Amino acid sequence: MNKKKTLRSLILQYKFPILAGILALSIVDFSQLSIPLIIERAIDALTLEGAGLQALTRYALYILGLAVVMSIFRFFWRYFILGASRKIEFTLRNEFFTHLQSLSFDFYAERKVGNLMALTVNDIEAIRMACGIGVVVAYDGILLLVFILGAMAYVSPTLTLYAVIPFPILVIIVAKFGKMIEDRFEKVQASFSDLTEKARESISGVKVVKAFVKEKSEVEDFENTSNEYLGVNLGLIKIWGVYQPLITFIAGIATAIFLWVGGRSTITLGITLGDFAAISIYLGMLTWPMVAMGWAVDIIKRGNASIKRVNEILLTRPEIADSQDSVDIEIKGKIEFRDLSFTYPIRRGTVHRAPTLNSITLAIPEGTSLGITGGTASGKSTLLKLLMKILEPSEGQIFIDGIDLQKIKKDSLRKGLIFLPQETVIFSGTIRDNIAFMNPNVSDKDIIEAAKLAEIYNEIEGFPGGLDARVGERGLSLSGGQRQRIALARAILLKPKVLILDDVLSSLDLRTEGLVLKNLLQFMNGKTIIVVSSKVPSISGFDKIAVLEKGKMIELGTHDDLINRDGIYTRLYKLQILGEELKASAAY
């Protein structure tokens, strides 16, 4: 489980380079602060002592030396602090992405992809800014503010007291506006997530949009979402637009007070012309720390708003974790469900739910095939999710090779049981890339063999480029059935000991699905295969067939057993066979 992140904890991970950068920044600031004192000495030497060219040359060389020092150490503070912020960004983004991989299927069912994309890119960028330039501006502002006031007090304590009269107002403004900026920026990031999700959703569903001629409606929806994003940004800009000028105004008040009081003191010889010039320069320099403090608050508050959003994900519990006594096993394929029940948790705003699975008891011997069928929401997919440790049973147990599933390590389980969920994932790239996704070094011979088993190879040969044909983003150039069979070929290449398919051939016609499953039964001969299918005739050749209805297993047996029983299975089988015959006769 990840620990809660804070800007402080992230910075402490790279404290040594950041400290080195702060040291370099301090040298730059002290060099910069020394220049007005040298100018003061030079002016006083000219006006009071009548110094010659040699003295002026010496002071000029001092300033030139300080300029060289400042240039060198400006490089070092940028290298160390901004470099450390990039490393923080790199580490945090990788940790965030790794954590995303550990989260459950249910998490992704509830979270918008656009939101996760915004967090991965935009929010982590804001955190990097806070840990980098935010640290620089905050430290630089505080250091310069303290030492400029100290240097001014050294030259003239009285004038310095007059100049800092507006400062209490500055503290109030920074505190008040800082909270407002954080709240507004949180809304900006949330709105950006909605905008990203809207764009992703529309682009990925472009086939449906065009099929139903909904382009105009999509444009209007996107414009509305974009307007909302513009609105919250303008709200933040209004705050920032008032905030910075106020700080500049306060700096102007301090300068005005000094010019009035300090000018009078210079005329009455209360201070020297050099003192007046030095304090004037310091006051000019004082404008930057004031602005810097406001800027630092803005950057850090934005970082805090983003880190809250990132923490919300990082602190989300990953899917079912391994227990301490979990073991690695070499899975052979014997599976048993004992009195298994499961009910999805009641979420806010939902009504009480009946059990999704109720007292399922089922034994699958090693090396056999099991077909599972039933109506919608009968619990077929949930049963497989329990087997894959995606969900935890409410009651009962699952055993694999005689070992309680809870004592088998998740990685060991998923290496032994290859599971294809209902949602087929195709990556942008070539068909070869997609089939060989799990093993990029596999030979073309193996790829072709897997494609033939999945009954997709003949179609691949018809594509421009064959295996090198590009499928487009999310496989948009492919039909649903082609995507499903390419995903199946990918699984076949893993040569699984147990293969589990959750209705992954639903887009195929009955004949093609039957051919694919016949190939799989031959390929998995002597190994365990479990297939969920809504097409009953496709699984009629399996060793055992289980029929689920409203979370209960109401029929179990071979095809002949179930046909003789004349129950739900028989009615579904006859209805689907009749449907195929009617299609065939209509074709003629």
Tell me, what is the CATH class of the largest domain?
Mainly Alpha
Contiguous low-pLDDT stretches (5 residues minimum) are 348-352
The CATH architecture category of the largest domain equals: Up-down Bundle
Could you tell me the strand content as a percent range?
5-15%
Total domain units: 2
Structural class: alpha/beta
- Global shape: elongated
How many helical stretches? 20
The biggest beta sheet is recorded as:
6 strands, mixed
Radius of gyration computed on alpha carbons: 35 Å
Structure summary, number of beta strands:
10
Major sheet: arrangement of strands: 6-7-8-3-9-10
Oligomer: single chain
* Beginning-to-end CA distance, first to last residue: 62 Å
* Residue-averaged pLDDT: 81
Helical percentage? 55-70%
Q: What string gives the helices and strands in order?
A: HHHHHHHHHHHEEEHEEHEHHHHEHEEEHH
Detailed description of the structure:
This protein is α/β, with parallel strands linked by helices and 588 residues long. It folds into 2 domains: 308 residues, ABC transporter transmembrane region fold; 253 residues, Rossmann fold, CATH 3.40.50.300. The chain is built from 20 helices and 10 strands. The strands form 2 sheets. A 6-stranded mixed β-sheet has the order 6-7-8-3-9-10, with helices on both faces. A hairpin with a 2-residue loop joins strand 4 and strand 5. It is elongated. The protein starts with 6 loop residues before the first helix and ends with a helix. About 1% of the residues have low confidence.
